[in-house]
Design goal:
The protein has 408 residues and is α/β, with parallel strands linked by helices. It folds into 2 domains: 218 residues, Alpha-Beta Complex (Spore Coat Polysaccharide Biosynthesis Protein SpsA, Chain A); 178 residues, Rossmann fold. It has 13 helices and 19 strands. The strands form 4 sheets. Strands 3-2-1-4-10-6-11-9 form an 8-stranded mixed beta sheet, sandwiched between helices. The longest helix is centred in the middle third of the chain and has 20 residues.
Amino acid sequence: MSINKDVKVSIIVAAYNVEKFIKDCIESIITQTYSNFELIIVNDGSNDSSGAICNSFAKNDARIKVVHQENKGLVNARKSGLQIASGKYVLYIDGDDYVESNFCELLIMETYNFDADIVIGGYIRNYRGRMITVKNILPAGRYENDKTKKIWDKMIFTGNFFSHGISTYSWGKLFKRDILISIQMAIPSNITIGEDAACVYPYISICKKIVITNASNYHYVQHQSSMLKNSSNISEEINKLSRLFVYFLNFFKAHEFHDRYYNQLKPYLLSQLMIRTGGLIKTDGKNYLIGHQIFNIDKIAIYNSGTFGQKIFYRLLSENFKNITWIDEDADLCNQDKLPVQDPSVLKSINVDKVFIASLNPVYINKIQKQLEILGFDNIIQCNLNDNIDNLISLYGLDPFNFDLKLN
């Protein structure tokens, strides 16, 4: 497939306290095989050496512009970069990630003879020394006219809990700048959860031509310091999520697919509530974990050391649950991150009342459930939350979706 090298790309990098990673990020960009780009780095009030590192690169490469500003958050950092962008297309890259040398070229190539509004790639997840390729669930191809509506119908929710047809991430996607300006600039500055989703899904909903490609050469570097931090202020987390979903509802209320979007947003809201609260909610003097009532005296095993597993484990500790065992097949790697995780074989020598599979991925849940059944455990709680979504959301004090559609 041919490529038009006259098409300019603006690459926007938001950088905040990423001195350990920003050099690799910038070097991966300036060595791209596709050279017609400008690199705009927004140093969002870093208090480490990130800004100085960015400046040193800019001195030696005229394609690089560095914007220094007070810390205003990811939404505003991207706005600042977009305001001075001049390319036909825009790519977002996070300051602690990196891309392979043909990243831009493979995405631009997909616009040849097809004036795409967006090109959606996959990515590679780097974590604990492993690289896992992640593709979008919706099939690769070029979509326009009625085919575009098929993307709208499943981009947020495919029918399986926590299964997005299109990933929420803004990075790894090639946006048309003229359209992106109308979307990114409209995102309220007080959106601090789901900033990427607030851009991606409204953007796709107004696209006429969409490309999904299997190109997966963006490296999402997930390190322990970038994992979700535990928050003791659960009501604040819920309020932040409410702001995000009020924005979604306001945006989609005039769309021809608004009813279908609302139905897709419900499981997305529930999944975010689970992750942000560690799955635990206290209401009417009772504790509910992933929708199941539990007691402080229960002997609980948490299976999985990912983001959700970490949130559940530390949330239960903060609520004075004493008998908690944390297990994962990667216990050795977890211990290197100073996480008190044990190998699942420990279940043979301890008594537990319940085993919680701390994942929202149905494929992973099914795999671990089979392993636990082999070990002889049948009291397994899993996150199969497709039923009674409205009831589960209401446990968190939200009435889906009877929000007051006004943004503060």
